[in-house]
Design a protein that fits this description.
The complex is a heterodimer. Chain A is α+β, with helices and mostly antiparallel strands. Chain A is built from six helices and five strands, in the order ααααβαββαββ. A five-stranded mixed sheet of chain A has the order 1-2-3-5-4, covered by helices on one side. Classes of the chains: A alpha+beta, B alpha/beta. The interface between A and B is medium-sized, with 28 and 22 residues.
Chain lengths: ~210, ~120
């Protein structure tokens, strides 16, 4: 009897430990997403904004010069360089974190992703409510990884189907069947399921975060 | 012109005024913008998409609800690219979107024809 009681205590301890570890995984995910989001925000409010205003000031200086001033051509060249830098920072900040995901949610973020993908991405997404940030970023990562992989392997196109059913957000992405371990970990930490194979990835994410 | 970045407001004002547009007032928050539109009645309102903690789209909605004459007279601006916001622009009553790097009086006139 004592042995059984000791085992029961040990099992209970392990269950508690597993729950603690999962809560810790969720905290780490939230911290990582938050860090990326802050960097994107700082790039946008900081260097991106300054490059834009500097470009405008440069054009003002240029416009004040006489038409035949040779400095005009030099300033125009600098303006071109500034525009190039702006485009680079824009790409960098978009890759860091999709601002539209936190601003407007999963639907608009996926439509933006589809528009910017190098291959056709067909979306079938109903109007969705806002979900906890971790659910939205995880769903977004599932789709963006399949799209990135499909683009690398020159697949023809990707299609994404999303449904919100019975407290669970269901995604079916066809056109690629590879997602990285970290995305699998994310889905798992949320208490969701992810299946891959036969050129598709299917995931189901609970729309509420596990508590405890 | 509504933007939470003071330096942008200053530079954009100089740039637009040099191109012949009269910038009647600038604001950095939704509350200040609502107050100024009420007293100044501008022909056009330029709104930055992200106003710090506030959303430029919120201000757009409030303005077009309160002032019928501003429907089709508001332009959303951002340092982010237009394709990031295409989706959010759909269904709004704005005249359009301009990336800040493309902001000019000519671009404003293309989006809002028939300005004085």
């Amino acid at each position: 009897m004592e042995l059984v009681a000791a085992l029961a205590r040990q099992v209970a301890g392990l269950v508690e430990l597993a729950a603690e570890l999962n809560a810790s995984r969720l905290r780490l995910m939230a911290e990582l997403d938050g860090a990326y989001q802050r960097i994107e925000r700082e790039l946008h409010d900081g260097v991106q904004q300054r490059l834009t205003t500097t470009g405008m000031e440069l054009r003002l200086v240029q416009a004040a010069l006489p038409d035949d001033d040779p400095a005009r051509a030099a300033l125009a060249g600098l303006g071109e360089q500034l525009r190039g830098m702006e485009a680079e920072v824009r790409t960098l900040s978009r890759r860091t974190f999709p601002a539209i995901l936190s601003e407007a949610g999963l639907g608009p973020a996926l439509r933006s992703l589809a528009r910017q993908a190098s291959l056709p991405v067909e979306l079938s997404v109903p109007p969705l409510p806002r979900y906890p940030a971790l659910v939205e970023t995880t769903a977004y990562h599932v789709v963006s990884e399949v799209v990135a992989h499909a683009a690398r392997t020159q697949a023809g196109f990707v299609s994404v189907e999303i449904a919100d059913r019975d407290g669970s957000l269901r995604l079916v992405v066809t056109g690629g069947s590879e997602v990285g371990q970290v995305v699998r970990d994310r889905v798992d930490a949320l208490g969701g399921r992810l299946e891959t194979g036969a050129g598709r990835v299917a995931a189901a994410l609970p729309v509420r975060l596990p508590t405890g | 012109m509504v933007d939470d970045n003071q330096r942008f407001l200053e530079v954009a004002r100089r740039s637009l005024e040099w191109q012949g547009l009269d910038v009647v007032c600038t604001a950095t928050t939704i509350d200040a913008a609502l107050g100024l539109v009420e007293t100044e009645r501008p022909d056009v309102v330029l709104i930055d998409v992200s106003l710090g903690e506030e959303s430029g789209f919120d201000l757009l909605r409030q303005l077009t609800e309160r002032y019928a004459y501003l429907v089709g007279r508001i332009i959303m601006i951002s340092t982010r690219a237009e394709e990031d916001y295409t989706d959010l622009m759909d269904g709004t009553r704005a005249a359009g979107f301009l990336a800040k790097s493309s902001l000019s009086v000519a671009a404003i006139r293309v989006l809002i024809p028939g300005l004085p």
